[in-house]
Amino acid sequence: MASSSTTLLSLFLFLFLNLNLSESRLTLDYYQKRCPQFQQIVQQTITSKQIQSPTTAAATLRLFLHDCLLPNGCDSSILLSSTPFTKTERDNDINLSLPGDAFDVIVRIKTALELACPNTVSCSDILVTATRDLLIMLGGPHFNVYLGRRDGRSSISTTVNGFLPKPTMSISEITKIFTNRGFTVEEMVALSGAHTVGFSHCSEFTSEIYNNSSSVSSSYNPRFVEGLRKACGDYRNNPSLSVFNDIMTPNKFDNVYFQNLPKGLGVLKSDHGLFSDPITRPFVETFAADQDRFFRVFAKSMEKLSLLGVKTGRRGEIRRRCDQIN
Fold first, then answer.
1. Is-contact 58 198, C-beta < 8 A?
2. Which CATH number is 26-164+306-315 given?
3. Could you read off the pLDDT of 254-288 as tens digits, one per residue?
4. Annotated binding site
5. pTM value?
6. For 171-304, CATH number?
7. Which of 74, 172, 174, 298 could form a disulfide with 68 if both were Cys (CB 3.0 to 4.6 A apart)?
8. CA triplet 65, 186, 206: central angle to 5 degrees?
């Protein structure tokens, strides 16, 4: 009798542990049986949205970076809306300029998936998959997306402070943010290459282009500064004024961003810093000369970033709506 009880207990523990392991394991084909339409729905939705709003890809990439770099990692906490009791990450000052197109495309995908496969696909998996596929649409590199994440249940504005790079930061400050999260300097520079697409608001760099000090003026190409001043002339009355980060190929994911930096065609202070800093400059020069190298390091870094702080099993949930916990 005792032997039979022991056998049953051992069997129970075996099944329990294996269920937990299967819940916690990220795989490339996680939704193959759970939601066979997953990839098709993502593809159809992002294609439609990108055609409608060509800034969607760059916007989604930025949203992804702002979610995964935080201490709680890739758990789509950036998508949660504030409540009367809690100000979320989304409403931290640094995130107020996150473009609406990125939030919209995630909502569209989630809505379609909830109709096809209710309570099955997490917002976290949607965000990383949409980011990867949108980048490929712009000519960027493929990287593996391991699936099976759960969504976080917490999002607090104050946790953002000090964990996201600001355009006014020095390169040493930005480097520290990434190295503290386990990235090398080369990987940090590669991820900065995300600026090869997208735009920056004039308010983020006007202090630079209207500064007449010799150190600032020598960083920018003189004709480029003149063009930026014209484009941003009315920024005080129109805070939404912005310019492309890469003026040469703004809608193509390539290495032209790095080729622009030695020519003084960087928009932000942090862009110029990558080339002027002796530690990061060699990587800028390598990526400018070798797009394949840039793509390889960028893809590796994005995969690494997508796995930071991932929640699985009971550590998270599958939200029914991406902007609120269940």
1. yes
2. 1.10.520.10
3. 999 999 999 999 999 999 999 999 999 999 999 99
4. 67, 73, 75, 77, 89, 165, 195-196, 246, 249, 254
5. 0.89
6. 1.10.420.10
7. 74
8. 60
